[in-house]
Amino acid sequence: MTIQVGDKIPSVELKVMGEKGPETVTTDELFAGKKVVMMAVPGAFTPGCSMTHLPGYVVKVDEIKAKGVDEVICTAVNDAFVMAAWGKDQNAEHITMLADGNGELATALGLTMDASGFGLGSVRSQRYAMIVNDGVVELLNVDSGEIDKSSAETILAAL
Question: Which domains does the chain show, CATH number per domain?
């Protein structure tokens, strides 16, 4: 079942790249007491994600944070090494690049897709963006083709 507005983000362990390598973080740590915008992509370095989705957030991150957002997170079903390299490639130093290597977050949220037809594997995240306040979903926009509902511009307008 897909997470809904008003639901609490499930407790999941994920990875971020630290100074000495991948470090474990929990969704509880990431969302507790903060207002967070989290956007998800099917895969790092894929065309729509690299040309449109993440770049929009890189350009708008300061405007988003100026609306009272404490953190902007980008997640994908990729490992911490790939997410760190993609963040560096995209100049996303002000965005937390969150690795959902086994698709546990995407699965817990009910936002998986089968991307095996594209050669990306059977468990990938759908493309979405959400606004989360103290661990509770306030807005969830899931794209069904175009990158419009989850774009930085759409989320900025909703804040």
Answer: 13-158 (3.40.30.10)
